[in-house]
């Protein structure tokens, strides 16, 4: 290979003209000229140590303008800047790890990391740049010849390497030399980790020993290496280009331009190395495993050096030599994924230490936001305490089973107090009768003490519990009651309320929920399938019909609470053992309600999977659909066969058309019903709907639609008892069925079928009788024709012969401003329309909890109001344009979800789980059918408490 003018040969030749120089050199050596002593060793110092976040990159413009960036451990990515005098920690306003920083001389600073993030820092402001990636893309490296000529590289879960280029206007993808790249087992290319350039040459390094180079803007081509190890970093100076990496053994490679390849310069015993930086004289430093450091002398050769510092970290991840010769190294626990123990070292003149993270000092007592102390002061005392539990649910982990039980027990407490002052009704847990001169005041006080005790017992130790407890206390104090008055003796309302709570708390201690151990599984459930690694393509299952827990790289609940990542734990595996409100087991035992066997892996289930795929693909559809009650709903139980309601029975007029983009409808539908508009979980969501019904102008509180209207308190305590008794039983029924059948979720089914192949054409490529059926425009196989330049599968050309699907592409990196969009991707990488930190609930599919909760609730509201129709024959939720969605930007226009009946709303809740990609139709339909039975049984049981016939 011809030698590039920017780099002399790796072995420079010395031409000696005549013999005088040789004679002079020999004379000097033989004459015993004294060898000058080595200069004093320059010490290494620890500038920062054991920070909460690992530091992943260090760079700058000079020794007095240094940047170090790193992980995000819950407070935003770590960004440190040194101005020659002191360090300052900066907030980017973004979330996600930052893996690299590059500072331009007299220009901006660019920072790159997770969620396809590239930030530009200039004039004291961080700006997120728009990139071609989605949230699953991690940008590991970035370098630029100028602010208008920048390259960024990265991968998706360690493979699917990409190169992006910024031309001063926008970032765009760079074509890759696919034919030159090695392949993973499933046909993908390795991930890329770092990029660096000089003199018109740009180098990219990655896994499987890959080094790419572009010369003077030409296409990237591969430069051979003698390794298949992961290569982490590339850097050069002084005519030397060095790459470091390794796995079980370390790698130091240097470019031999004459040989046209990178050759090993690794010292014996060299460990994995991740950082490297060279100086203009060819000297340099490499850092890596357990804080090992290697030095390159200007004449060549690498030697291990002792730092003289005790280090407790997994690796020094990056190094940088500043223009004045100072050496900087950063790292932490970066190999295991902990991304903590952040460390910054320096070799050179003394520099200021990074201040330790500010100790916030003693934790201040939590306070309740003013708006949460009493959100509905005009409501009954039962309504006001219902608002308190809804607030607590929104702060806590979204565990629908747990919250359904808490809603029921709170409702029972309030009912039992109300019933204690009524001669004919029966209490659920507490059955004594009481008298008071002012019954209304006594009920208000006793309900408050009972509710306060139950709620503080259930939520003080929950996520957000300190705030919830502060709200409960603040509300009690606003009411004029003493929260710490716990006495139970006497006939006064305070003692009564405390006794009612005491009885219910005692019953809950032995009701099978295992509250004492935070509702931990008591059944010893073991999944039949190994966990599905969400960020990796494909999967392995022992039985594709059965549930597969997910392994998440980052885990966040649907209401935004960051949880421990890794393998999901089964939520509610033992819930079928919890004491119900109205359910009774059949004689001889068995399930409370038996749905029969769910469909197993095969042709029927394939059809249901295709339906889910089609719906998630419609998230990008521009087709307009009518969402009005005139076109939607009125379904027979357990089906979607309805065609709407011809007239509004209240007005006698047809429902006005409500046309909207199908894609906007799909996205709003999936998010609205996911956990409720404010993440109060489905049981709480139906409490919100019940409250909105009672709040409707002109609504008449006639129980069961007959008789004289009752006051607001009587209405509320009776509605809450029946409704929350129903959702509690719905949780028991649904989770018992889930535990018995333990069926797979769509992500397992679709990825597994897609990995097998296509089941339509036995003579075609990728045929497998149990694969996905081919559906033009939805499910196809990549062919030479379909992947030719400019064709629909061109970006998937390397996956020729694999099954691809036209669907939602996934969560965008910037959810506020971008959309994931729809397009072709491999079936083995399919994702539901959910955040990548959530993906699918942590329990099996059959039956749908949403469907069961919702139909049970609809039965209760229909019976208690005396009509299946919402007040006025019309219910509605409005999602504002570009102001509602959280998974991505949208909707693109205002969307109004509308329902004529409670059944229509309940059916839509069940349907939404298919649009969201987390259930198949049998899960929904059977959930509706069992929810119908649950709701009716809860109603009958509640009615007996109301009329005083519940007790023998």
UniProtKB/TrEMBL annotation:
Any GO molecular function: peroxidase activity
Origin: domain of life: Bacteria
Stated name of the protein: Alkaline phosphatase
InterPro entries noted in UniProt: Br/Cl_peroxidase_C (IPR016119), DUF6851 (IPR049283), PAP2/HPO_sf (IPR036938), V-haloperoxidase (IPR052559)
UniProt feature coiled coil, ranges: none
PANTHER family named among the record's database cross-references: PEROXIDASE-RELATED (PTHR34599), TRAF-TYPE DOMAIN-CONTAINING PROTEIN (PTHR34599:SF2)
Domain DUF6851: from-to ranges: 412-549
Annotated SUPFAM superfamilies: Acid phosphatase/Vanadium-dependent haloperoxidase
Name of a matching Pfam family: DUF6851
Organism expressing this protein natively: Archangium gephyra
